[in-house]
Fold:
Amino acid sequence: MVGQSLPVREKVSVMKAILVNAAVFQIGWLCCVLAGANHLPWLGTLTALLIVSWHVSRAPRPRSELLLILSAGVIGAIWDSLLVYAGWLQYPSGTLIEGTAPHWIVAMWLLFATTLNVSLKWLRQRPFMAASLGLLAGPAAYYAGYRLGGVQIPEFISAMTALALGWAVFMPVLIYLSTRLDGDRNQGSGTLAQGCDARV
Structure:
């Protein structure tokens, strides 16, 4: 009976980790967007950094996890700054250097990276699915931010097209980086555990 119940407990733990990780990310995302929209950008950035710090502190290999998160932040800072420079995106607050992305957007990229080895781990070895998810979910997230007042999109079609194509590239790249910089490599076993890790 003990041998039969252990896998069940592991599956429950893994599913709980997925749900908590996804929920915490969504809460952090919403805080960043609403804070930016209401001219309280540091509140969003602080929330994201607290979540990221908590996440890294719980990783079995925190240095690898942190390097993954920082890599995603660099990619996001460059990409979103290009979109701002092109005039396709405008942010109401949080910009430290004119023509670049606000700090709370970069913090959101760091926050997003905390999902790569947990709730998005199932995308490993599925580059086409990762690209498809990026193609759809990337611009959808920015549109949601636009509706909440966190970002303005003066040239809607151009911006949405760029976001879709960009995220179709970034998602497979980020998933690839997560396999090379897996801060949770020693966690879990079996098919389900390969789809996420056993903690947030």
In short: Residues 117 and 172 are 13 Å apart (CA to CA). The helical segments are 2-37, 41-57, 62-85, 103-113, 127-147, 156-180, 190-193. Confidence is low (pLDDT under 50) at residues 187-200. The two ends are 28 Å apart (CA to CA).
